[in-house]
């Protein structure tokens, strides 16, 4: 199948492009490099041994989307392209609503014009807010989002659900990602944070590499096993593979269809456990301190992933240890480049 991957030069997008190609599909990338760079395409070339078709542009333009659909016979879409900085979304909510919601609506409309029905959408466990109980399953009620960014994910899910409810001929899946970490084992692609990383693992690897002086763990006085937050850290390659499984599942569907799936490991690790595991598997000492809580952080979340295991026939294959080794290998490769 020819699969359009919006945001295909991004962290999760690029790893998904590799898995699509390995499974015999033809990925076609759209990216505006707002949170990625052209070097990702070179990394993909090295891994795949051939160039991936690429269009530079923003999905929030119907005209641009139309031109891509007109030039290619597209069978389905994976929509990663979105802005994802929580803090920025609080300061500039209109940017987030315009980009994340606008691009989804335009994409669905253009898909309709070209009779493309299948879409896998990047949602987030952020839709659960601070859950009353863990693990969270897809039946766990969503809570009001704690940022405009998070709200765009909830609204996007509502849009997908409503479009399908209206009987329009689309088959949609929303994948609710937990915390993706790691990098491709080749170290040709990985996470490329813009400026100072706000996510944990890139901050850790940059600290280990000497790019940052010290990691601050945001709070150790939470009501958790060691006082630090609990997250479900999933290897990005396992997450990428879930998109393939979602597509296979959608291929068996016709008419109007929508469903959502948690994509995590099913296990919760604390931030401190993650830091200690990073030190152990990479045989190094990390300079870190405990600091104050970061406002808006969820205390504890990890996913019940039995629905994806069962219906999508998908399971994680990689361990936290592998993810943290791969993340470090990638950071070292980045250091060599400079
Ligand atoms: C964050 C977003 C989430 C988004 C995801 C995208 C918030 C509240 N949530 O998830 O909506 O989908 O990024 O990747 O921002 N930590 C430290 N020190 C650091 C960085 C992080 O201790 O320097 C801790 C955080 O307090 C948190 C954990 O590490 O407990 C994970 O943080 P992060 O990687 O930013 O992910 P989330 O906050 O879970």
Unreliable stretches: none
Tertiary shape: globular
Number of strands: 13
What class would the helix/strand composition place it in?
alpha/beta
**Major sheet:** 7 strands, parallel
CATH superfamily of the domain at 2-183 and 233-264: NAD(P)-binding Rossmann-like Domain
Listed once per kind, the bound small molecules are:
uridine-diphosphate-N-acetylglucosamine
Strand content: 15-25%
CATH architecture of the domain at 2-183 and 233-264: 3-Layer(aba) Sandwich
- Alpha-carbon distance between the termini? 38 Å
For the largest sheet, list the strands in their spatial order. Answer: 3-2-1-4-5-6-11
Any idea of the CATH class of the domain at 2-183 and 233-264?
A: Alpha Beta
- Estimate the helix proportion, in percent: 40-55%
Number of helical elements: 11
- Mean pLDDT comes to 97
Radius of gyration: 19 Å
H/E series? EHEHEHEHHEHEEHEEEHEEHEHH
CATH topology name of the domain at 2-183 and 233-264, in short, is Rossmann fold
What does this protein structure show overall?
- This protein has a domain at 2-183 and 233-264: Rossmann fold, CATH 3.40.50.
- Helix content is 41%, strand content 17%.
- The protein is built from eleven helices and 13 strands.
- Strands 3-2-1-4-5-6-11 form a seven-stranded parallel β-sheet, sandwiched between helices. It has a two-stranded parallel ribbon with strand order 7-10. A two-stranded parallel sheet has the order 8-13.
- Helix 6 links the parallel strand 5 and strand 6.
- Helix 3 packs parallel to helix 5 (93-113).
- The model has no long low-confidence stretch (mean pLDDT 97).
- Bound molecules: uridine-diphosphate-N-acetylglucosamine.
- Uridine-diphosphate-N-acetylglucosamine binds next to helix 7 and strand 8.
- The site of uridine-diphosphate-N-acetylglucosamine (UD1) has 20 residues, from helix 7 and strand 8.
């Amino acid at each position: 199948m020819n699969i359009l991957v919006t945001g295909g030069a991004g962290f999760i997008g690029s790893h998904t492009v590799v898995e699509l190609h390995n499974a015999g599909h033809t990925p076609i990338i759209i990216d505006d490099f707002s949170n990625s760079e052209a070097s990702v395409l070179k990394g993909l070339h090295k891994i795949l041994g051939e160039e991936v078709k690429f269009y530079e542009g923003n999905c929030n333009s119907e005209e641009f989307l139309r031109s891509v659909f007109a030039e290619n016979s597209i069978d389905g879409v994976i929509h990663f392209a979105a802005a994802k900085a929580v803090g920025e979304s609080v300061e500039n909510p209109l940017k987030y609503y315009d980009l994340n919601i606008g691009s989804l609506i335009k994409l669905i409309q253009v898909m309709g014009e070209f009779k493309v029905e299948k879409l896998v959408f990047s949602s987030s466990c952020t839709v659960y807010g601070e859950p009353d109980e863990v693990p969270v399953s897809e039946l766990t009620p969503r809570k009001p989002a704690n940022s405009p960014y998070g709200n765009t994910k909830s609204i996007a899910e509502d849009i997908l659900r409503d479009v399908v409810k209206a009987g329009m001929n689309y088959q949609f899946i929303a994948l609710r990602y937990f915390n993706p970490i790691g990098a491709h084992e080749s170290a040709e692609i990985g996470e490329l944070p813009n400026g100072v990383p706000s996510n944990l693992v890139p901050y850790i690897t940059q600290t280990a590499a000497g790019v940052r002086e010290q990691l601050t763990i945001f709070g150790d006085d939470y009501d958790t096993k060691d006082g630090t937050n609990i997250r479900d850290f999933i290897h990005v390659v396992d997450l990428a593979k879930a998109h393939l499984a979602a597509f296979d599942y959608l291929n068996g569907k016709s008419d109007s269809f929508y469903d959502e799936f948690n994509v995590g490991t099913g296990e919760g690790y604390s931030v401190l456990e993650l830091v200690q595991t990073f030190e152990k598997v990479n045989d190094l000492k990390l300079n870190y301190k405990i600091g104050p809580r970061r406002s808006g952080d969820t205390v504890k979340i990890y996913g019940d992933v039995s629905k994806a295991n069962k219906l999508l026939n998908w399971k994680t294959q990689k361990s936290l240890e592998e993810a943290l080794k791969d993340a470090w290998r990638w950071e070292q490769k980045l250091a060599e480049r400079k």
